[in-house]
Design a protein that fits this description.
The chain is mainly alpha-helical. The chain contains two helices and two strands. It has a two-stranded antiparallel sheet.
């Protein structure tokens, strides 16, 4: 039995994710992942797409600095999201 594909019902934004550059950000922007690079009280909140939020979680304490954004590579979880986005298009 084949699993059911789950798609995200939130509309896509025309703004690319600042971390990966993909057009994967959803409306409203606050429903995306809050980057772990902006968790200090004095930091300006930066939101990234859900796959990048997962990727930052997998990076643990070795976060990619914002100066190295956009990243061309994410962990394997991004393949799942790419498949879902193709199904939406």
């Amino acid at each position: 039995m084949k699993g059911k594909q789950i798609t995200d019902p939130r509309p896509l934004l025309d703004t690319p994710c600042p971390r990966c550059g993909d057009l994967a950000m959803r409306e409203p922007v606050e429903s995306n992942a809050l980057s772990r690079t902006t968790r200090e009280e004095e930091d300006i909140p930066v939101y990234v797409c859900s796959p990048c939020g997962v990727d930052e979680g997998l990076e643990g304490k070795q976060l990619t600095d914002q100066s190295e954004w956009p990243r061309a590579h994410r962990y394997m979880i991004s393949k799942m999201w790419a498949t879902a986005r193709e199904d939406e298009g």
